[in-house]
Design a protein that fits this description.
Two copies of one chain form a homodimer. The first copy, chain A, is of the alpha/beta class and 223 residues long. Chain A has two domains: 130 residues, SPOUT methyltransferase, trefoil knot domain (Alpha/beta knot), CATH 3.40.1280; 69 residues, Helicase, Ruva Protein, domain 3. Chain A has nine helices and six strands, in the order βααβαββαβαβαααα. In chain A, helix 4 packs across helix 6 and helix 7 runs parallel beside helix 9. The longest helix of chain A has 19 residues. Chain A is elongated, with a radius of gyration of 30 Å. The N and C termini of chain A lie far apart (71 Å). Chains A and B meet through helix 6, helix 8 and helix 9 of A and strand 4, helix 6, helix 8 and helix 9 of B.
Chain lengths: 223, 223
C-alpha cells in the first residue's frame, strides 16, 4: 500500500491488533499500521464511502458488476477526488463472504491462471494498489515517461550519423572487409543496425574514436 | 508467478535449496519450485536468452533504457513467441548490483511512491508477473503483429553476444583505444549501445567479421 502511495487502512475485527508480527513486516510503512482504524464490522468500515469495490476470486451465485483491476483503479481514482472510496479485501483463507460481497457496488477480479486462481491476500493488495498508482499517475499526467527522458546525452543528429556511416565505410574498405564494387547490402545492414539504436552524441564520439584508432593502427600497403 | 501463468524459475546461487520454508509457502505452486533450475551465476542463467530485463529500484550512474512494467510485459510477451526471455530480480535486501544490471538489455522500474520506493521482492515479482499476464491475455485477444515478428533473422542469444563483447574488447585494446587498467566505463557504454537493439544473428556475424578483419590488418608492434 505504502509503496503505491496509499495511506488509509481500516481493519475489520482483526484477530490481533496491535500485532508484533505486523509491526515487524511493516518496515518503513509503520505509519500506515499505526494510523489504521479498527472497526467491528464491514458496514462500519465503509459507512462514509460512495464507492465500494470488493475483491472476489470467483464468480458468485448472483452475478455482480465485475471490473478488471484497471477499471477498478480508474473508478477509484476518479471518484476519490470528490468522495470517499473503499477497496475491500477478504480473509487470507476464505476471502469475502456473500453478505460482504453484496455490500460492494462492484467486484474486481484479478485475471489469474485458471489452474491456480487463488492469490495471497498480499499479492491481491499489491496488484490493486499498483493499478491505483498507475491510474493516479496517469491522471496527474506523469506516467508513461518516455525512454528519452531518462537519457543523459543528446541523441545524435542525422548529419552526425551520416558522417559516422561515411567513416565506417572508409574503414571497412581499409580493412578489406567491404568492396564498394560488390557491396552485398553491407551498408544497408549497418544502417538498419545502428538506426535501431538511436545513438547518442557521446556514443557516436566513442565509435568515431574507435574508427580513427583503427585507421591509425592498420598496415598500409605501402608499408 | 504460478497464479499469473508463469512456470520457469531459475535460481542463481540460492542460500538454501531445497528449502522447507519455500516448499511450505509454495502451496499449490510446488511444481514451479520443484522444476526450478539452480545455477551459480547470472550469466549462466541468461545464456540462452535474447531479451533480458532487470528490475531496478533507482537510476544508476549510467542511465539505461528504462521501461515501465507495462512496456516490459509487452516486450516479454512478443519476444517470447520466438526466443527465450528472462526477467531478472535481485536480492531481497540489495537488489541487483551494477554488474548484473549491465547484463540486461533493459531495466524496468515499478512506479512507486517517492517517499517509499523499495518494494519487497515478492511484491515486485507479483506486479511484473501480473503485467505479463495482462499482456499475454491481450495478445491472445488480438492479432496485430509486431515489428519483430516480421524480422528476417533470428535474434542472437546471450552467449553469442557475450563472445562479441569479448572480441570487441580485445580489438579495442589492440588498436590502443581501450586500456583495461583505466576502462572509463567504455565496455558498459558499448553494452548499453548494442544492448538497446537486440541484435540478430547475421548482424552479429558481420560485426564479428569486421573485428576479425581489423585484427588481420593492424600493425603488430613487432612488425
Amino acid at each position: 500500500m505504502r509503496n503505491m502511495g496509499l495511506q488509509r487502512l481500516t481493519l475489520v475485527e482483526p484477530l490481533e491488533f496491535p500485532s508484533g508480527v505486523a509491526v515487524g513486516r511493516a518496515a518503513s510503512a509503520l505509519d500506515v499500521l499505526e494510523g489504521a482504524e479498527v472497526v467491528s464490522d464491514l458496514k462500519q468500515a465503509i459507512a462514509g464511502c460512495s464507492l465500494v469495490i470488493g475483491t472476489s476470486a470467483r464468480s458468485r451465485s448472483i452475478p455482480w458488476p465485475m471490473l478488471t483491476p484497471e477499471q477498478s483503479a480508474e473508478k477509484v481514482v476518479t471518484e476519490s477526488q470528490q468522495a470517499e472510496v473503499a477497496l475491500v479485501f477478504g480473509r487470507e483463507d476464505a476471502g469475502l463472504n456473500n453478505e460482504e460481497l453484496q455490500q460492494c457496488h462492484f467486484h474486481v477480479q484479478i485475471p489469474a491462471d485458471d489452474d491456480y486462481s487463488s492469490l495471497n491476500l498480499a499479492a491481491a493488495v499489491m496488484v490493486l494498489s499498483y493499478e491505483i498508482r498507475k491510474a493516479a499517475l496517469k491522471l496527474a499526467d506523469q506516467s508513461d515517461r518516455k525512454e528519452d527522458e531518462y537519457w543523459d546525452q543528446a541523441k545524435a543528429t542525422g548529419d552526425q550519423v551520416e558522417h559516422f556511416y561515411d567513416h565506417l565505410e572508409r574503414v571497412m574498405v581499409a580493412i578489406n572487409f567491404h568492396d564498394p564494387g560488390n557491396p552485398r547490402q553491407l551498408m544497408q545492414r549497418m544502417r538498419r543496425l545502428f538506426g535501431r539504436i538511436r545513438i547518442d552524441v557521446m556514443e557516436l564520439n566513442i565509435l568515431r574514436g574507435i574508427l580513427t584508432n583503427i585507421e591509425l593502427n592498420i598496415r598500409k600497403d605501402t608499408d
